[in-house]
């Protein structure tokens, strides 16, 4: 057993001063108390629960920033042109190179305070679109990188079948495809077998989007959904996708999903940017969660999620960094809030009927619903019997140091960045010390070699 004395321990709606937290050999929290007479390690600073990254496409990290050089001819550059560049990169990466990129990305996520990632993984096959002899080769590389860097991973092998509503897949999508739901379920089984090799990995199901699968495939996967396990799906990210869904299915994507399936609190709808009023209410009523990716949605010009209406209806959301153009957790929360302020001309946009402190509100939504996205049910911070996953924020910041305990969280949210993160713990193990990952040099060298091989960014 190990005991930590913590200067400021962030709970769901209060900050405890000078708490003693006991962690067992298995990395799980045994108790939290006010007094302790014995040896302890002192964690100096503000200690937050580990952040959850509920939506990641690992390989896209290698191209983050590369699609930012725009033509001066005023040609349209939007999600669809960005997607063409992304496909080019997806077609080149080998399993070894994917693992190398994942090592870099996941060590960076840990440095930013994420202790768990949901990997929305559709890069399944080799460069010619043929299956690897190990069906889950690419997913296994992601889980291996997570294990080696120390982050927990929920691998979501994605069912991807079509090139659009009623359209065959394009040549550039060949690495992503399962011919039908039976083949997809074989991939899930193979991924689960691979996951047995790793202590920090689990596997759940996901569907790329309504446009990427046919109706029969969708029914086969959704109607056999495992009870109590999360299911992830991209939905209503693009206006064009909404219009195409209306012509193909006769309804908007979210409405059609709600009308045709038993959508419940295990569903994690990624983006859900473009919603009619009835769809906002429909998601909130179903108990489904929305995964918001503010920096990627902003970068791609997707649109702004109607958070204010959704939260007033008791809607639940979490945060993902998607294409990884931004990786800072607090920045994602700030962008989300500021988007709402900018369109509503109000400042009080980030709160619930129960919680008026945006620090507590944002953190509890992103963390508790983020855990649900990984299949973990825990609605408190630092809960007894759960892993000690923690982020230690340095108190050597003039505003943070001078704030009262409750104001510390809002100060951290609105006026600080990741450089304030000093240490990160995953299941009781320290993986970030003095703001650095313990294998940083080796990971960097390997990542540089990989990008050179791929001739990226030269
Ligand atoms: Zn995505």
Structure description:
This protein has about 450 residues and is an alpha/beta fold. It folds into two domains: about 1-50 and about 380-440, Urease, subunit C, domain 1, CATH 2.30.40; about 60-375, TIM Barrel (Alpha-Beta Barrel), CATH 3.20.20.140. The chain contains 15 helices and 17 strands. It has helices at about 80-90, 95-110, 135-150, 180-195, 215-220, 240-250, 255-260, 275-285, 295-300, 305-310, 330-345, 360-375, 400, 405-415, 440-455, and strands at about 1-10, 15-25, 30-35, 40-50, 50-55, 115-120, 150-160, 200-205, 205, 230-235, 265-270, 290, 315-320, 390-395, 420-425, 430-435, 435. The strands form two sheets. Strands 5, 6, 7, 8, 9, 10, 11, 12 and 13 form a nine-stranded parallel beta sheet that branches. An eight-stranded mixed beta sheet has the order 3-2-1-4-14-15-16-17. The radius of gyration is 22 Å and the shape is globular. The model has no long low-confidence stretch (mean pLDDT about 95).
Notable features of this structure?
single chain, 458 residues, Urease, subunit C, domain 1, TIM Barrel, eight-stranded mixed sheet, binds zinc ion
The dominant shape is globular
Low-confidence stretches: none
The CATH first-level class of the largest domain comes to Alpha Beta
Fraction in helix: 25-40%
Strand count: 17
Relevant CATH superfamily of the largest domain: Metal-dependent hydrolases
CATH topology of the largest domain: TIM Barrel
Named once each, the bound ligands are: zinc ion
Strand residue content: 15-25%
Largest sheet: 9 strands, parallel
- Total number of domains: 2
CATH architecture of the largest domain: Alpha-Beta Barrel
């Amino acid at each position: 057993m190990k005991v930590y004395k913590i200067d400021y321990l962030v709970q769901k709606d209060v900050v405890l001063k000078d708490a003693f937290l006991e962690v067992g050999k298995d990395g799980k929290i045994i108790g939290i108390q006010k007094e302790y007479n014995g040896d302890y390690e002192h964690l100096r600073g503000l200690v937050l629960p580990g952040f959850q990254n509920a939506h990641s496409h690992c390989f896209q990290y290698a191209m983050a920033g590369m699609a930012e050089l725009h033509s001066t001819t005023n040609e349209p550059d939007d999600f669809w042109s960005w997607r063409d560049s992304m496909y080019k990169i997806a077609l080149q990466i080998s399993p070894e190179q994917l693992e190398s990129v994942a090592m870099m990305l996941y060590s960076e996520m840990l440095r930013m305070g994420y202790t768990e990632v949901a990997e929305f993984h559709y890069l399944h096959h080799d460069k010619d679109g043929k299956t690897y002899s190990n069906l889950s080769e690419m997913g296994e590389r992601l889980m291996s990188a997570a294990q080696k860097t120390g982050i927990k991973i929920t691998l979501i092998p994605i069912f991807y079948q079509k090139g659009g509503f009623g359209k065959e897949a394009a040549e550039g999508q060949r690495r992503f495809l399962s011919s039908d739901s039976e083949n997809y379920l074989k991939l899930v089984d193979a991924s689960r077998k691979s996951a047995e090799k790793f202590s920090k990995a689990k596997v759940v199901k996901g569907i790329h989007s309504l446009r990427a699968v046919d109706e029969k495939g969708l029914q086969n996967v959704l109607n056999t959904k495992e009870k109590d396990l999360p299911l992830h799906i991209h939905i209503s990210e693009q206006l064009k996708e909404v219009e195409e869904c209306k012509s193909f299915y006769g309804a908007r994507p979210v409405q059609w999903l709600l009308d045709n399936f038993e959508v419940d609190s295990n569903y994690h709808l990624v983006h859900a940017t473009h919603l009619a009023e009835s769809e906002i209410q429909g998601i909130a009523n179903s108990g489904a969660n929305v995964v918001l990716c503010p920096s990627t949605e902003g970068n791609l010009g997707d649109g702004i999620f109607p958070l204010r209406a959704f939260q007033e209806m008791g809607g639940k959301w979490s945060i993902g960094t998607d294409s990884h153009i931004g990786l800072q957790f607090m920045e994602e929360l700030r962008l989300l809030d500021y988007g709402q302020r900018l369109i509503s001309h109000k400042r009080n946009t980030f709160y619930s009927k129960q919680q008026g402190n945006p620090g507590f509100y944002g953190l509890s939504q992103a963390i508790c619903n983020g855990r649900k996205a990984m299949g973990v049910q825990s609605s408190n911070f630092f809960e007894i019997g759960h892993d000690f996953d923690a982020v230690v924020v340095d108190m050597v910041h003039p505003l943070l140091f001078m704030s009262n305990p409750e104001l510390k969280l809002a100060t951290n949210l609105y006026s600080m960045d990741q450089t304030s993160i000093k240490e990160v713990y995953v299941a009781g193990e320290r993986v970030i010390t003095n703001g650095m990952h313990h294998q940083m040099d080796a990971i960097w060298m390997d990542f540089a070699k990989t990008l050179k091989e791929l001739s990226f960014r030269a």
